Amino acid sequence: MTVRKPSGGHVGFFEGKKPAAILKHAVIDKYVSPFAGKTGLYSPGHRVAVIDGYAGEGRYDNGDEASPALLLRKARELQGVNRQLEGYFVESDPTSLMKLRQMVAAEGVDLPMQVFSGGIEDQLDNLLTLVKGIPTLVYLDPFGVMIPFRKTAQVFAQRPSQPPATELLINFSAVGLRRVAGLLTSIKDIPGRPATLARMDAACGGDWWQKVWLDHGDEKERAEEAVVVEYTRRLAADQRCSWCVTPVRNRARHKPLYYLVFLTRHRDGFTEFAEALSLGLGQWRKAVYDIENADTLFADEAAFQASEQALEDGWVNEIEGNLRRLLGEGKSFVISRRYSEVYGKAAGQARQTHLRKAWNRLHPEITKTSPKGKGKLLQLLIEPA
Predict the structure, then answer these.
(1) Which string of DSSP letters, residue by residue, matches 354-376?
(2) Quick one: 2-265 is in which CATH superfamily?
(3) Which three-class secondary structure state does DSSP give residue 52?
(4) What is the pTM of this model?
């Protein structure tokens, strides 16, 4: 995960979820509850909104939740803690739109959920007006190239103050980027090349991405990640945003399908998202393991758990070493303010439970601050011994 601190529609759901889809939906599932819980505390009517700009059909053909069905479920769960989660679903494909409306009508009775036809580029201004004054997470998951940069940037530009909280989650298509970038070096006379490149220029806010891509030569994966990181940095510029970029694959050895891009103006948003991402990655690893070992003699739950434990041990060791080094400077600090330095290579993988284990190893010899009984470790001041 690359992190920084402040300074049209789907083609049909003919199968169940692939691991890459499991990850993005797991992250949303794990993140929406703390987002709504915290930001909705002082929101008028405890209202919190999610705008789903590429909503699709709502469910996969096998019944698995897509993002709209997931958000309907979360809305019912959050009623129990006095939060009103509102869903604003946008879909341009007529067939998907019809199925989406049917799903929302059947499963969203008495829930504040609305469906909009057309493209998110055309609907965004209206939607941002509808959610003015309440915390909002905007989720953009295009099948191909993103909407123009200037339009995406309006998510923050039209909501210049905080509160209300404003957050943006994007699935930036690596497949789409690679396809378009291939035009930069192709010697073939490809119809529509100028228009296709112009569309990517608009999505990125200029043709700067072309130089970034070409500067990496044959290192295509490094090139695409560099483009997405710079795209995110530009979105965050002058918006007081923290952000992170995470490549997402269907298998560890595969090329990324997309990059999960997250932007927030609040430190808590960043740290809560990191927790959700860690949990989502765990579900992704389990899904990959189950798929690769289905109908074989090699599936072994104990072996999977052992591999997970080895990963977690590595994260704890990484965090412990980083804490030792930082405390060795002889100064106290709040964990969240030095998040990237504390988590190091474990950023985007480890959670507070791993931080707690590492911290316990250092108390009381290295730090006089005990983590025992403390709920919000990231906001805690840690002091050298």
Answers:
(1) HHHHHHHHHTTTTBS---TT-S-
(2) Vaccinia Virus protein VP39 (3.40.50.150)
(3) strand
(4) 0.92
